[in-house]
């Protein structure tokens, strides 16, 4: 697993539990048809159903100790139909969230589990689901206009995850990459951590499928070769990377083309 700005493992299960509780608390008071500003096609009930489904899915993975991707079809066939009312949605979310936390708490972090990322362990699913709950907690808060602070260390880890795993690239057989712009440094002003990212175009064939995507080569720390810098609090940078509104200022200085190339990576699809 890549090094993290936290300098060690964070209490991901505690964050998952706290942000899931906050998510539910906020949406319980929201009218079901109020629109989520970060998801214009969704209302509060859609948001509640979405996170419930996500937590149900990874709870199933953990409970079944599933490692074989061929078993995903059978897993998906057991999905529940969406409840037709708010009480049913809340009940589904409660069951899914409680089971996910209980299952992950009962597994050693190194336990093998199916995951789309390279790190196929219960430990990474803990990490991923903590960040999933955080981002959707923010979605819920923005829906009702009651935003609360984001933990600095969790946000810094979230920046690391987005850059390395969601948007990052490491050389793979069958793929080649070419730089599309000079390096850019991304720095937190409160978490004492920075990354240098180089936008690249990745092409080739992976698992028999053609690939043509924009990604980032990522390293820790600043780089004298960086042509630009993006700075902000860990929370604001995490929000920016997930296309959520930041609360504070994010400064962008240096080569405009390099900054635009980073933006292009962030708007490219995540496969």
UniProtKB/TrEMBL annotation:
GO terms for molecular function: isomerase activity. The keyword Isomerase applies. Residues 14-140 form the Mycothiol-dependent maleylpyruvate isomerase metal-binding domain. Keywords: Isomerase. It comes from the Bacteria. This is Maleylpyruvate isomerase family mycothiol-dependent enzyme. It comes from Terrabacter terrae.
